[in-house]
Structure formats: structure tokens, C-alpha cells
Amino acid sequence: MLKSVLLQAVTSAGAIMKESFQGSFKISNKEGINNLVTEVDHASEKAIIEIIKNSYPDHFILSEEAGEIVMDSDYKWIVDPIDGTVNFANGIPICCVSIAVERKGTIILGAVFNPFFDELFVAEKGKGAFLNNKPLQVSEKAELDSACLVTGFPYQLLDEPNGPLVIFEKLIRKGIPLRRLGSAAIDLCWVAAGRFDGFYEHKLEAWDSAAGFLIVEEAGGKITDFSGNYYSPYQPSLLATNGKIHEELRAFINGAN
Ligand code: IPD
Ligand code: CA
Ligand code: CA
Fold this sequence. Notes:
alpha+beta, D-Maltodextrin-Binding Protein, domain 2, binds D-MYO-inositol-1-phosphate
């Protein structure tokens, strides 16, 4: 039941994204420069919240634009109505809906849907990760030097020691292919699918990573913060890899070489 509501929510929101993609929609700025939200983010979020509330009126919901709908419940839905809004607003079809379900602090379900590529990634704790119902497995590459990576840039922290620009430059100078897609949820799913060997980002929010975390973990990958602590959606830094390059990339990010 939880899973079918989750799937209904991501696919309905994905349909809203797809319908609105070629049309005109209002775009507003949040804090900072180019930190956008569109009316489609709000429409997607409204549909998701309605679907969850229809079946589970007493569940807690944490959603990027609406904030917290606080309920005294063991269950929390963690929602990003559009991950990759800047892409969406510019007509770049690398964007998705991302929803996770947490039970008593453990993420038990995650789904990420990119309606433009028609790719639905789903994971259930202990039951594997799937792309359009086919099982997913992370890549086998064992060395950072042969890895293909992806990252994202937060609006803050750019000038920190070992900040996003420093690490980006070091990896590029090392000759490592390092992409920036603009959707953390898709970055994570593509690690799970073995398209990337690793993904890191200095500052993410729970809704960016919660579903993708479970998808990576269930595909056999490893996901920690930059200090190597087990993933929590509520702390900022995130490193997700195929497991094999994890420590080498983590040491590199922390300035070891
Ligand atoms: C953003 C995307 C981007 C990441 C940013 C996120 P949004 O989410 O995931 O890839 O670099 O940190 O904020 O704003 O498009 O939902
Ligand atoms: Ca996001
Ligand atoms: Ca968003």
C-alpha cells in the first residue's frame, strides 16, 4: 500500500512536469541568484501532498516548498517536487520528482522519476533497487583514476578550503571525467545504475538525497558524509559511490592528495 501510494505520487507529479514542460509557467527567485522555483514545482507538490494525505492523513510530510506538515507519526514522507528546477525552467530534461518514506528514522522506500527519459527508479529497503522494474547494480571500477564522476555546486561554501571549486579543479587536473547534471536525485540514481562510479556534493537537503540514498544502497553502493559517517538525510555533505572507490575519493575530497 505504501509503495503504491509512493508510485502514484511520483508518476502523477511526473505527468504534471511533462505536461507543463513546453508551455509557459511563472518562475520566481528564492534566496540568492538563480535559486528558482516555478509554479510547476508548486503544482507538483500540491498533487503529491494530496495523494499522500488521501491515504495517510496522519503521516508527517517534509517537502521542499511547503516545509514541514508536522504530525505525530512513525512515518515521514520526504518530498522534492522537482529536483533540477533550473534545468526544468530552461527546458533541459534532466530533472525529476523524488520521494522517500522514512519509518522511525529509517528510510524504507524511495522513488525518483524522470518523466522525460521515462525512467522510474525505485528501491525498497532489503529488496533491491530497480529501474523500470529491472534490477540495478553499481559499477565495478576499483580505481579513482579510471572513474567517471558527477557533482553539484551549492549556492554557498564555494570558497571554503576543500570547497566545491577546489575539489572540482583538482579532479579535472587529474584528468578525471567529472560531470555536473544539475539534479542530485538523478546523480544518485545514475550511480546506482552504474553510469557514474561516484557522486559527491558539499551541501544537500534531505529532499535532494533521501530517495536516491536508498536507491544507491540497494544497488550495492556506499553512501556516507565526507567524514565517512553513515548517511543521514539531515546532514549536508554526501559521497555516494560504487563502494570500491569510496575511500580513495573520500581521502581526495578531504585534501589527502
Ligand atoms: C538542486 C539540485 C542540484 C544541486 C542543488 C539542489 P533543486 O535541487 O539537486 O543538482 O546541486 O544543491 O538544491 O533546487 O533543483 O530542487
Ligand atoms: Ca532538490
Ligand atoms: Ca526542488
